[in-house]
Amino acid sequence: MIEVNNVFKSFDKPVLKGVSTTFETGKTNLIIGQSGSGKTVLMKSVVGIHSVDSGHILYDGRDITQMKRKERILLRREVGMLFQGSALFDSMTILENVMFPLEMFSYDSLEERRKRAIFCLERVELGHALDLYPSEISGGMQKRAAIARAIVLNPKYLFCDEPNSGLDPKTSLLIDRLIQEITHEFNITTIVNTHDMNSVMEIGENIVFINKGEKAWTGTKDDIFTSECEPLNDFVFASNLYKELRKAHAFFVSKKKD
Amino acid sequence: MNAIEKVGTYSMLMVRTFAIPDRWRMFFRQYVNEIQKQGLDSLAITVIISMFIGAVITIQMVLNTANPLLPDYATGLAVRDTLLLEFSSSILCLILAGKVGSSISSEIGTMRITEQIDALDIMGINSANYLIMPKVTAFMTVIPCLVIASMFFGIFGGYCMAYFTDIITVHQYVYGIQFMFNPFFITYSVIKGVVFAFIIASIASYYGYTVKGGSLEVGKASTDAVVNSSVIILLANVMLTKLMLS
Ligand SMILES: Nc1ncnc2c1ncn2[C@@H]1O[C@H](COP(=O)(O)OP(=O)(O)O)[C@@H](O)[C@H]1O
Ligand SMILES: [Mg+2]
What we know:
The complex is a heterodimer. By secondary structure, chain A is of the alpha/beta class. Chain A is built from nine helices and ten strands. Chains A and B meet through α2, β6 and α3 of A and α4 of B. The complex binds adenosine-5'-diphosphate (ADP) and magnesium ion.
């Protein structure tokens, strides 16, 4: 479980204005909100790439904002992160990318490191692309390779920044489901940034809605249709499709009551 | 950012860079890679430029010393000293600042904007140490070879001029390049080269590492890296020359 307590962060202008929330273990926790609302900054503050101006961030009780550099580096070994643009190392093959964290931190033999990397790549169904370079595979495959790299050290915490930006709906769905499966399979605390309503409805087990740098709403995907939160409704029901869905939902709910 | 801030962040980055690597095995792998990338790939351009410059200086010197009062060996001596003292260290490094410096800063800058550096940091790796130290140390290792290759091929370029044309005889040239030879000039050039290599690689890394924004900024960073490292090389050249030769 990760607890965020009253976190403030500004660059030239304030970006996070006192965010408090809880991300639960074994669930896919979603941070949703418009582009530019501060989702990435929140995530990077939680993992410690950005240092916060004030507030506390607790990883199962351990406060990362109070840690020394050394302790923070140790904590990072428990963290996996999937970046918006995959962030695979272009000079390495897919297998080398996934083996990289092991090369840095594991004292297993080369054979065991290879086995572990291939196991993770097969878990994301990339067993056939070991020797290709990131530039030679599609965006969806890059995302999957990045997931394999993020989980290769058995992280306790997994962060995904817009895992399906730039992917077609079907591939997006595959990636979302993969993240959810991995979360349940290994009981990880997973945090996903997204502005994609399809993901929200697919894997939204615990949703935090960020609006202009503040937490405006929190709940599950089933709570969304009945939310009274004005900015959330503006965000979720922006498209005609979701407007229709809300009408249908309201209709069924009233039918059930009758 | 003003200049003082820049010097500050540069120094802090260098402190982070020169730490004990997380894994020596990974450091050596990167180091060997960089030697290959910066050293061997710069060898061809070094050889070509040096030969042509050696040939051109020879022609110029023959023309400039076409005076009966000047001895025969003047041409060879002037060619040798120009190469040994300045060309094969300072000018070569200015040229390599363009080649190696811009490639280092655009490589690291691209890694920055595509979040590859963040990915390293998240893994708990000292990204500055992992990325920059092998580049800087590798370039400092190969530069003596490049400097010496440049001297050799520069003088060889002049020799070819003497051999294939009749502006100067081979005998005169060879006598000239041996006349009053001071081996310290080679040491002096190599030391300068090593210092310049550090300047080029570390400044280029600094500009790449601190890129913010997109590909436009990466291009700007590599231009800035080349311009600034060239200026600093010229300043360092004056200081080193004063220190070592006078
Ligand atoms: N490194 C940075 N330096 C300055 N401003 C930043 C930085 N990162 C993000 N911002 C600003 O913070 C705001 C929120 O950005 P971000 O968290 O990336 O939004 P999103 O919700 O789309 O992920 C934006 O206005 C952006 O300009
Ligand atoms: Mg973002």
